[in-house]
Amino acid sequence: MNISPIPEPEKRSASKIPMVGASFDILYRMDVAVWVYDIDNAQIVHANPAACKIWGAEVESELQSRDLREDMSSTVGKRLRQYQSDFLASDSTFTELWTLYPNGSPTSVMVIYRGYELLDGRMGMICEVVGESEDTPENLRSAEALLHTDVMIMLFGVSGPALYLNPAARNSLRAPISGLDDIFVDPQDLSRGLGEIERVGEHRTVTKFHTVNGVRWFDVSIKSCSDAVTGQPALLLTSIDVSDLKEARDTARHLADRDQLTNLHNRSYLQNHLAWLEDCGTAAGLTLIIFDIDKFKTINDRHGHDAGDTVLRQIATRARAVLPPQNLLARFGGDEFVVVVSERIGEAELANQIEKMRTAIAKPIQHEQTRLNVSVSIGVSQFNDDYSRAAQVMREADIALYASKQAGRDRVTYFNAEMGDAVAARDLLEVELNSAVEREEFVLHYQPRLDVTSGKIVGAEGLVRWNHPRDGVLLPGAFISVCEETGLIDDLGRLVLELGVTQAIKWNKEGRGLNISLNVSPRQFSDPTFLSTLSELAKRAGFPKGRVELEITESVLIGDHQLIADKLRAITAMGYQIAIDDFGTGYSNLSYISRFPLTCLKIDRSFIDQLPEAGPIVQLILTLGKQIGATVVSEGVETQDQLDWLTDHACEEVQGFLITKALPTDKFEAFIGGFSLPKKPAVSC
Ligand code: C2E
Ligand code: MG
Ligand code: MG
Predict the structure, then answer these.
(1) Which of 190, 413, 478, 483 ranks highest by number of CB atoms within 10 Å?
(2) What separation in Å is there between the alpha carbon of 582 and the centre of ligand 2?
(3) Is the dihedral of CA 505, 507, 510, 513 positive or negative?
(4) Which of 446, 486, 519 to mutate to test the pocket of ligand 1 (most atoms within 8 A of CB)?
(5) How far apart are CA 9 and CA 177, in angstroms?
């Protein structure tokens, strides 16, 4: 917008003209157009002939009878109200280019407005025309635009005085305004802006202004120019209120940068922060601490997700409270937190900070009626002076954290190079596992289940083995946990089910009368495709209904009992049986056990190992099995004494090295062909 041809309004010291009787007569004789305006009623009260001419009125009475509201926009009405209150507050005078619409056609005149007390005591104004504008369409339109825009446009002398404020600025900004520092809330923003103008002639920023509605945010552009009247250097400010936009943007940024549960910074913020440290080259010597909550899954499983949330929030609050404020604390995801120690500190001070944090976290956490004792495992790594790859340091701290967990949790581990080698081996394992699933390098070995009463092998548990191209046959302990962590367990689990069901169909066709048990991991159980996989397999020709058993662990039964029971019923309806594996080691709510369609309880090896001391527990499980109509199988039977004890106590089935370890299919088939066990009469129960 070109405003240079428009004379700027001026604030002069007010001089109230005594407008009574003869004084006004003088004005009637002058060529200068003067009128008195009643702001409240939008009417001209007095007008001299020169004014009548400008307004296009034959006589004063005709002008007095006009209701000026008809041609007045609401902005103009508001502005006149503003003038009225300015007049009441001080002896203000305004000079402004004004467009009048006498009989509908525009005329632009430069007018001085002064407050004028009407006869009844209300505040009106006296208007004096000091010049007519060149009524070019360009001038008229630019003047109108300037007057009506919501954009605040201001002109200041470089040394400070306000030379012109358009109506939007006058209406919005907090008076009085004698200089820029009356407007800017933050003096630093102002001096930064002025500095930049000195250097490059212009400045753009978002800053806070004092307004009649309090402090608000404005997008401000300042340019150096010269005052069209004096030719002196001046500053032109254009500002628009962006408070709503800024608030929305700040909320969006907060949402994007913060973790909603703990209000700590989140993973993406942390990553940006680390990238920034790297870019600035200021990361060298800094430390990363990663910690996660020990057995957090158990807290969620036993006490519910609300308890888990309380723990996360409490830990966040406590850690934040003891860490120095300049250290960044972020929730990296799940139960994992990261601290960026943002300055180089010595080993002792670092250890001290970590210890403080551990102590704060270790205090019991109250959730409803429950007191929870929580500990954390911690891994620490430092940015090296030679390299500063944040991703590398994160990984090292993660490796150290893993080492803390491996060493029994609730401890701090500082990364060292040897740990890196172990991790490299795990990485290799992950890569190899991926291709192993694709290449189907997995097979099932079968461990027989012996019916104690008949002395016959009645079934087998399919246990997965990895035929590793380099390392030979690997047991599940070497790879199942990595499969669970990486999600590969879904593919592996499907493959196991496929292998097991195929074998069950074959044995059934051969009339062997063998049941097959297959292990299902908790993650696999909650996989949305699990039911459809089972259903597909159950529809295969020759699928032996009632002969394929799925072993789940107690942790699967924790949660929404109704949902779990429904799922289990859907599975049994397809013709599968359900066993609880490693029974006695989890947290099953015994009162719910009877509501699930369970056909078998497998007593965990650890109890069998401790017979006869663990006898009461084993007996309890045997009784429970009877009550709910499930077969009880003892796992890990290694000695004749254990077998004898179990036989004496009417355990129905056993499985263990005493009979044989798991065997490849051909060996298993050969084994059962020639199997016989000296039978000891069972004690009747
Ligand atoms: P599990 O299901 O409880 O299987 C029994 C484990 O105990 C097997 O170990 C078996 O070889 C071992 N075992 C059997 N009898 C004895 C004994 O008398 N003494 C001793 N010391 N051990 C005995 P394995 O094959 O190494 O499997 C370990 C675990 O890996 C299994 O425990 C099961 O939880 C898991 N697993 C095995 N196959 C699969 C599978 O296909 N899918 C899933 N998700 N997990 C599997
Ligand atoms: Mg099992
Ligand atoms: Mg087991």
Answers:
(1) 483
(2) 7
(3) negative
(4) 519
(5) 14
pLDDT tens-place string over residues 248-303 = 888 888 888 999 999 999 999 998 998 888 887 778 888 999 999 998 988 888 88
Collapsed DSSP state (helix, strand, coil) of residue 349: helix
- Backbone phi and psi for residue 408, each to the nearest 5 degrees, phi listed first: 115, 10
Facing residues of 473 across strands? 467
**Mind listing the pLDDT tens digit for each residue in 435-473?**
887 777 899 999 999 999 989 999 999 999 999 877 788
The neighbouring-strand residues paired with 241 are 218
Atom of ligand 1 nearest to the CA of 662: 11
Find the distance separating the first CA and the last CA of the chain, reported in whole Å. Answer: 102
Give the number of the atom of ligand 1 that is nearest the alpha carbon of residue 483: 44
User: Best substitution site from 445, 463, 580, 610 to test ligand 1's pocket, by max atoms within 8 Å of Cβ?
Assistant: 463
Q: At what angle do helices 417-439 and 390-406 cross, to 10 degrees?
A: 90
Tokens of 516: 């097959």
Specify whether the CB–CB gap between 238 and 153 falls below 8 A: yes
Expressed in angstroms and rounded, the spacing between residue 664 Cα and the centre of ligand 3 is 19
Decide: 291 and 379 in contact? Cβ < 8 Å.
yes
Cut 0.70: pTM above it = no
Report whether 184 contacts 207 (CB < 8 A).
yes
Pocket residues for ligand 1 (CB within 6 Å)?
Answer: 447, 463-464, 475-477, 480, 493, 496, 519, 521, 551, 581-582, 605, 635-638, 655-657, 661-662
Q: Give the β-pairing of 107-117 and 412-414.
A: unpaired
Matching residue, tokens 């297959």: 518
Q: Is the peptide bond before 612 cis (omega within 30 degrees of 0)?
A: yes
**Phi, psi angles (nearest 5°) of residue 211:** -125, 175
Cα–Cα distance between 196 and 50 in angstroms, integer?
A: 49
